[in-house]
Amino acid sequence: MVLLTATPRILSAISSLSSSDRSSLATVNLPTTCGQAIEHTTLIAISRLSKTITLNSLLRGTRIYVPPPPPKPQPSPEYVALMAKLRREQEQREYAALVSSSVSSSFDTGREDEDDDISPSLVLNIFLSIILCAAAIFYLTRWWANDGLRVLLSLATGVVVGVAEVGVYAAYLRKVKMSRDKERRKKERKVVLGEYTGTETGGSLALDAKGTPVSVDVHAIMEKEEIWGKGINGGMRRRVREKWQKDQEKVET
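-> structure tokens emitted (253 positions)
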């Protein structure tokens, strides 16, 4: 049995049948609108009952009937409750991971500030400098007859080099500490020149905080050096801007 789609020609053929002919097809569900399913055997019976319509004309324009997909079953209350529970648990896990990552990052940042600046590599570097300088002095004075004087001079050289190394690094640490303190105390400020109202000869006209018109030299403002960031080495925005300017200069050259 093959199901076909009903066409207007098939519907007109069914309506043209007599009541007795329709009664003979009473056991079959006849379509009432286009697109409904009709059996191939029913079309053969209609073509035999009708004197003017052939089976070929009835089959013209028809297609294989494809039933619509069944409706999607509604989820059960148990399934809905389980999905809601799983979503809540997932949200709680994501929130806990976010909070733990933020706390760990802040802890790491504070720990970096409190880390000891004296590392094993630094101590090894200082000792190597002392030993190598003392050995170099002892080697350069190999023609001296007094070996004791050579040893004393080598030891004195090592002590001087060690004191110099420690002093230079102590000055560096002090400068770094001062820079950090200055960076923390410094606040970034934004200065509003005023509201632009128009242009005049030799400059622009703006309003100050009190609403008084003042003349502003646009060229002087454009040529003024802009500070992007804060601190002794500048902030992140300043470094990004400098990198961008260098890239632009490389592209232009």
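DSSP finds nine helices and five strands in the chain.
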